[in-house]
Write a structure and sequence with these properties.
alpha+beta, 7 strands, Structural Genomics Hypothetical 15.5 Kd Protein In mrcA-pckA Intergenic Region, Chain A, globular
Amino acid sequence: METVRIDKWLWASRFFKTRALAADACDLGRVESNTHRAKPSRDVRLGDHLRITNDAGIFEIEVLVLTEVRGPAAIAQTLYRESSESRAARAQVAEERKQMLEAGGMTEGRPSKRDRRDINKLRGRIHRFS
């Protein structure tokens, strides 16, 4: 196997929960392959550099193994190598988020349905059927 569709690879490597979400992320410009915006049908090859934006943050990775089969998370982590800068940046964002929560960034109680919609819109989350 020399190439795999990028939406299949993103799903198999567990960056997105479903292949449809991976395709939507590509359509919205949240996936770049070798500094070019990736369409869902774009082929991934060994050694490609991807920049992926999802709920967990921004990942800058290099493709090491190609597969179309979704396996356990431990195996999925061996499909790519994340850069140390990417790892450090995601840790920094997580720390800032934690400090904001400790400083009283959250209100009392659970957010209402309307609040959740506003939060998701603010974060730029993907809404498949909206």
